[in-house]
Specification:
Distance between the termini: 11 Å
Number of helices: 1
Order of helices and strands: EEEEEEEEHEEEE
Radius of gyration: 17 Å
Number of strands: 12
Length: about 140
């Protein structure tokens, strides 16, 4: 993976602070976002206190709010749900198309960096959701 060919498809900057460094490496948000599409949920029942209980979401695609220049990208940074969805689809946004390395910020307890209010401000590493077979990485 080439750091120069990573595109951040989350709505926010991703800050990674590596061991021994105080300055983060930042992958800037660029306005291009990957979001999951889902089937319409339906109400199953209502609890006695009035709280509705619905069916879970069934994810059925990815929506990009713009065009991704695939020629200059080999790795995409995405949210955990999008990363897990793309892992199941071998790194493809479309049924037939380029396969990408798919990574995301590690938000596990030992990797996430938080401010005093508990909000995530960065991470110590990225996680890899999918990596294309070597012959396709040329």
């Amino acid at each position: 993976m080439d750091p120069e060919k990573i595109v951040n498809l989350t709505p926010h900057d991703v800050h990674v602070v590596i061991a021994g460094s105080t300055e983060p490496i930042t992958f800037r948000a660029n306005g291009l976002e990957a979001r999951l599409l889902s089937e319409q949920q339906r109400e199953l029942f209502v609890l006695s206190n009035g709280v509705p209980v619905w069916t879970m979401q069934e994810f059925n695609g990815i929506q990009l709010n713009g065009e991704l220049d695939e020629r200059n990208v080999d790795t995409v940074l995405v949210s955990m749900p999008v990363g897990q969805y793309l892992r199941e689809r071998e790194g493809r946004f479309r049924p037939v198309g380029k396969q990408f390395h798919v990574c995301g910020p590690d938000t596990s307890p030992d990797a996430a960096m938080r401010d005093a209010a508990g909000r995530i401000t960065g991470t110590r590493r990225l996680v890899l959701y999918y990596s294309p077979p070597e012959e396709q990485q040329q």
